Structure prediction request, 636 residues.
Amino acid sequence: MAIAMMENVVKHYKIGKVEVPALRGISLSIEEGDFASIAGPSGSGKTTMLNLFGCLDKPSGGRVYLNERDVSKFSSNKLADIRNHNLGFIFQTFNLIPVLTAFENVEFPLILLKKGKPKERKESVMNMLTQVGIGELAKRKPSEMSGGQQQRVAIARALVKGPKVVLADEPTANLDSVTGEGILKLMKEMNQRTKTTFIFSTHDPMVMGYARRLIRVHDGKIQSDERM
Amino acid sequence: MLFKLAFRNIFRHFTRTFLTFLAIAIGLMFMIIMDSMLTGIDQESFDRIINYETGHIKIFDRGYREDEENLPLDKAIEEPGAIIDKLEKDPDVAGVTSRINFRIMLSDGVDQYPAVGIAIDPADDESVFLLRKSIDKGVFFIGNEEAMLLGEGLAEDFGVGVGDYLTVLTRTKYDTYQALDLRIKGILRTEDPKIDWAAVVIPLGLGQESLDMGKGVTEIDIKLKDPTKTKQFRDKLAKEITGVEVATWQDLAEDVMAIAEAKRGGTFVMLFGIFLVALIGMTNTILLAVFERVKEIGMMAAMGMKRKQIVRLFMLEGAMIGLMGSIAGCLMAILLNIPFVKYGLNWGMYMRDMGDIGYRVTGVSRGVWNINMFVGAFIFGIVVSALTSFYPAWVASRMEPTEALKRV
Prediction:
């Protein structure tokens, strides 16, 4: 069953008076439980695809479906709701809130979602931090953690609310290769354990090697789509 | 969580937050202290107007107030006795007396200064006024005698003291000249400039005789048992006594009250200007916070935080700085106001140079504890801080998550 889908999606950005095409008619279906990598060089359109699947942007043409709902024309508030309920994000630069501890960072989306009582929330957060291997760092602030530990917090934050899809934009780009591999293994493990769909972008062949599905994009078009 | 986040965010840049909070605290402190002093001066001024000049209610002959500036003697209450008798029987009245106000020139043979003569009834003046208690040197009148009480400012100007003589030059009711050489029996120190700097007080009998007033007086002054009932009592008297004008002290001090109000308004406009600078600092602080945290805002939006929640977060940060500034401002104001209330400020050296500015203050004036102002300033500090944070908060909420996340 398709959890996320693009139907002939076109996206262009206006830079000054010039319209720059980013996607030129993409049709793609992501199945539930996929561990899919969108790969391509800089400017190929992979981040734009993630932004559209992540309801952070709207297409210039075509349709984007999430969980069988056409989200192409939703208002920004409605998109915020969709993101809140259905999506988790992992960023290249981790983007943790520096004044909150690891525990509070992971708890944050649950509070936004108004999900669970404080006691239940605490259990969920600690469970997730333990699953990503940093349960003992719950009280540390981001500045007191390494890049790999911070990305683990970010993964826990993305997964804690049980989203349908987790989107990760070059999740290992700011990490050394060993730590990066560790993060990818963790993402894959979480994908298998929780059955959450992961879509991540990369241009790193090592990262591509972890994907079960590799979608190559070039100049805003899908070049290849293969299951590994 | 929003509270926790906002609270921790404001301490990300301690120095910046501290300076903003300090500016708000100092602005509020000045507002409170200025209000304390102005309210103190107002209250003292009004007390002195009542205690030395007007009582609570005054009765004049009809038409007197049209020409009040000139203190006309021909518009006198010719037979005050009946009215005074009636008033003395009124259960609402605490005291009644009568006076003659008249223009004079005061001379020592070398210099002469214009002044106001006040002829008072030594027997019952203190039932309404506090002149007897305000004798700084010498003694009060014992009945009708050929003597004067002199304001301390006039005594200083002439370089005279108790026992010295000055000449009072005036015109009688019938406009003929009159000159009286009077011994100074006492020096008055009321702290009301209208008395201390410009008044010569003589006994009513001497006044009536030398001004050809017969039994006439220019005013009857009343002190009420309940000072809050001045307007009702004025209206009652106006109906009961014909051929006279009745005025409350508020009616008579209308100009002074208007001047005080205008000065207060002007001062607060100036202070609001100072406070505005603090608020611009607040907007700047929050705006800087927004621009520093663009990526974080993008992340929060990506996680599903709605625009109104982002606005709320930044306004909360502004309100928290405002709250701390308000608490500190009120505490600083309390500490500073204690000596102002206890010891006051001495305006003496400025007031005389400034001339008649309406306030009845010649020396020390004290601040007051105006709880309403403290509460008002406290709430004002928080609310206005939150409101001035709205613009940067709105800027933050309008950021597109995709653009915000791209920022380095």
Chain B has a mean pLDDT of 87.
